[in-house]
Amino acid sequence: MLPRRSLLAAPLLPLATPALGQSAGDWPNRPIRVIVPWPPGGSTDVLARLLCEQLTHKLGQNFVLEDRPGASGNIGMEAIAKSAPDGYTQGPATIANLSVAQFLYTRLPFDPEKDFSLVSMHWELPNVVVVSAQHNPTNSLQEFIAWAKAQRNGVSYGSPGVGTTAHLCGSSFCDRLKIDGQHVPFRGAAQIIPAMLAGDLTFAIDNLASYTPVIAEGRVKAFAVTSPERWPSLPQIPVMAEAGVPNFVVTSWCAWVGPAGMPRAVIDKVNAAMKEVAADPAVQRRFEQTGARCVWSTPEDAERHAASQRPMLKEMVRISGARME
User: Fold this and answer.
1) Distance in angstroms (rounded) separating the CA atoms of residues 90 and 65
2) Is pTM, for the whole model, over 0.90?
3) H or E element: which one contains 251?
4) H helices of 217-298, where?
5) Most buried residue, 39, 86, 133, 242, by CB count within 10 Å?
6) DSSP letter (8 states) at residue 72
7) How far apart are CA 77 and CA 74, in angstroms?
8) Cα first-last separation, the chain
9) DSSP class of residue 100?
10) 303 with 8: CB under 8 angstroms?
């Protein structure tokens, strides 16, 4: 379960639910389409697959993934928002989709606060500061900061797209520490990692789940995580404050959603299954192996959590100077 301190930080927002008395009936009596708004191989895709495997088992119908990446998740989120609210289209909605997009885009094809039925929190993970082991000479975050400041032509940092936590963390990091940093957007970590390993990209502060394998292989060096405490799967990596950069806590997270108006009985049925999934130690170990933590919440607490993050993220968007049409 997500810690209470992070779920109780904002006032309750109303859930968009159908009229009382609506029932899940025989739901689900056919496969559920799961739209993933991010590229295959990234953390959102990998962790959605782990959850769908469990939901298929518990609810007796296949949860079939459909990757719909593009426009920093907006293409897939629009598809979820505009689908029939019958419970047969669901998907993962990240912090970028629910708590950043409204501050970043001049126009959105959906309203993050009104167009979705939140079911539960799905996962949480920190971002991690990483550099290429082959192409970067530093061995700690403070060494890296000093080295980066000394680069006459500046440094570059990658992200899976404008407005992602990787972009906002990289921008805030460079702004605070007076580093000349150039943002380089990619489609996802599957493109960022090769660029870094080739020496074409200096660093990233991106989702830990995407980098766990290359950290374990020693191909990248991990200097710090952005969680409040050390992460269970990589306890040797310090948090940002321990590494000399205080007040830099930004966890990536994801909620499970459907379109607004999804029957409350369906929401409750999926929520109950997700609660069982999050309580399963074997499932937790699988999530932790990817660098994430499987979490659960009530639908209302998922709404609170998304709302509580928005003021901080609005300021990070302002610092980044990013604006999208």
Assistant:
1) 10
2) no
3) strand 251-259
4) 264-278, 281-290
5) 39
6) G
7) 5
8) 36
9) I
10) no
Look up residue 65 and give its DSSP letter. E
The four Cα atoms 126, 129, 133, 136 give a dihedral, to 10 degrees, of: 180
Q: What domains are there in the chain, each with its CATH number? A: 4-125+253-320 (3.40.190.150), 126-225 (3.40.190.10)
Say if residue 263 is preceded by a cis peptide, omega within 30 of 0. Answer: no
Round to whole Å and give the CA distance between 154 and 150. 8
The secondary structure element, H or E, covering residue 81 is helix 74-81
The pair of structure tokens assigned to 300 is: 């209302």
Please give the structure tokens belonging to residue 190.
């599957």
Two structure tokens written together for 53: 């495997």
List CB contacts of 196: < 8 A, sequence separation 6 or more: 130, 131, 132, 135, 158, 202, 203, 204, 220
Average pLDDT per 10 consecutive residues for the chain, totaling 325 residues: 39 38 76 93 88 97 94 92 98 95 94 97 96 98 98 95 92 98 91 97 93 95 96 93 97 96 98 98 91 94 96 96 88
C-beta atoms surrounding 4 within 10 Å: 10
**Would you state the structure tokens that stand for residue 290, as one six-digit string?**
């990817």
How many other β-carbons are positioned within 10 Å of the β-carbon of residue 194?
Answer: 12
Q: What are phi and psi of 158, to 5 degrees?
A: -105, 160
